[in-house]
Amino acid sequence: MPNSLIPLSKCILTPSYVWLSSLAVWLGKNLLAQSHANKNWGGIGVIDIGSNGIRFGLVSSLTRHLPVVYEERAPISLFEAQHSGSKSDERTNIPEEVIVDVENSLKRFKYIAHHYQIDCNNVHVIATEATRTAPNSSHFIERIKNSTGWKIELLSKEIEAKISGMGVVATYYGVEGLVMDMGGGSVELNYVKHRPQETDQEISMSKDPINLPYGAAALTKLLEKHDTPEKRDTLFKQIVKDLKEGFEKLNAPTDIKSKDGSFTIYMNGGGFKSLGYLSMSETEVANKSTNGKSSYPISIINGYSTSAEELAKIVKRIAPSHDVNIVESAEVGDLFPMGNPFRISKRRAKLLPASAFLFEAILEVCKVQYVYFCEGGVRHGYCFNKLQKSIWSVDPLESFIKSHSLQPKYLTKAHHNQLLANVKKAIPSVAYDILDSDIPPETSSKMPKRLERLLPNLIYLAYWSMHFAKEARPITAFQLSLTGGPLANAPGLTHTDRAIIAWCLMYRYHEDGSGSKSGGVEKDISIMAPGIFDSVKKLIPGGKDGRTICEIVGKLIGFAILCYPVDVSDKLGISNISSIFKSGSKTIEKQSTIFELSEEGHEININDTEITKKSKKNYKIFLNLMDESVYDQAKVSLINNSLVKKSSEKLEKKYTLRGKRKKEKGRAAMVATNIDETTTSEKDNSVEIDIQVKRNLSKAVKEKKIKS
């Protein structure tokens, strides 16, 4: 298995990565220019003096996506400084040379903050376990204040656990499960429940979070002392005991559990993130383009997820043995003979066995179904806690997109809503279920549908590649949400979300790719990005059905923008025009829009034991291009032209969704309908989606009038 992701040397040779590099440079200069232009831009800085390093970050404004404009990490381990040369468990004073090193690092941070024109009074210095427990803690804090003017805010165990949990909420959109933060000196465990779609924006957490002295550096030191399987077994049992006692005090609510009583865990902190990077590096996907294997395509830790079962297999290989019947584990250096995996330094690799050891203990305490890895930690949580509560419900992805320099100013809210309404009207309900097919039903019912949440953002993103040459549009659109794209640092996206966005936007520009006989836009992208194409493809829920839904959504978005390139609601009055016809004794007013969805299918009779008829459904998406009532009254030329006509002909296609129910590891069974598999007597769960063009809608309306 490969121990690294796509080598940078290969990435920079492709034209798309050259473009992305140029874009990154331009954005950096643009952000800096904006900071100089506005001296009162309201930014804040946060310095987190942790046990294993000091992290510094500048946030340009307290908006939902917490836009970071600068961050770096000073590799100063206060934990090691207090234990170096000491054979006992007693902590020693933070040495003078380390204090000087910290002072110099903070002075550097102060200079950078000043350069970015952030008031020094708006830079917050916080400290956790290593500072809290140092024998000379008071002296250390006083020295920092005298040399920098900054007063260190010493977080208690309880506040540290709360802030850490809020850091996860800051970088996701909706969190329900357990949150674990493994720092250098300690590990925090809490439950978090935040449903942004609900009116009540309280973030539910335990008042008694777990804080134990089993951070990555601390546990590594303990493992060095417990150097036999017998001793490690004793240590393992002690950790399990401590976790169980703390877990009982958490009193986690039942509604954050799955039906089988299992939890989703959100992991952050350097110790756990290393496990995430290791899991990424050992994930392989068959690559049809190269007839070989591809590495995991998205090297972004935030939003990466895996089943607890799969992670346990990796952990078992590297965790120090605590079974007296098993031969002692290999040395750390022997674990990665071909070099350390991506984003795992030599120093971090030494701490990796401790992280694995702790994860094994967690699995002894509670049942875990899925693991999500998070970028958000104490710094993010500290900033999020300063936001107004009304902002907590805002989608961080939408907040990120709207404030981005690539977002066109001419796309008004009214225009966006018009496009969204048209596209949303044409999407069958089954599409939402298919793209949620990897989510357990009891979980999906608590959160907005994935496509429902992504669709408004897809409308915005559909414009981000429009200004490129035609041949570049599909590939740049495909990579917007991936590692090198402008959305790489966007919060609130899982890797599944990123794959769906990539596939939809690729098909938004399907007309700019090769013709269908040549393999279409998919063939083009597989050639331009052979290292990641098949891997991204595999991330989309529902298999081929899920990719078909993304294709349809992307094409509909592109066609809607073609028909409505500008806001026509006010000037042309389209939103006020309707067709009137009678059905029986009722008069029906029908809005004249470019999309119309009709659903046909069998009546399904459900009794206690089975469904007696087939569950096959047929959806027809009509493109209304020749409604004379629109053209006569508003004289609209935007739709009645050869460009739209030619594009509409390319859209006409019949799709068949097979609805195969193959089970994914650690995920729910894949379904194409809402019907329970166990109650279906016939296996035909296929769904047909037929896109047709109505070129004489007014005639059809007249016929309905005559019949009525």
Automatic annotation (TrEMBL):
It comes from the Eukaryota. Residues 433-511 form the RTG2 C-terminal domain. InterPro entries: ATPase_NBD, GppA/Ppx_hydrolase, Ppx_GppA_N, RTG2_C. It comes from Glomus cerebriforme. Signal peptide: none annotated. GO terms for biological process: regulation of transcription by RNA polymerase II. This is Ppx/GppA phosphatase family-domain-containing protein. Gene3D superfamilies: 3.30.420.40, Exopolyphosphatase. Domain 2, Hypothetical protein af1432. It holds the Pfam family RTG2_C. Residues 86-389 form the Ppx/GppA phosphatase N-terminal domain.
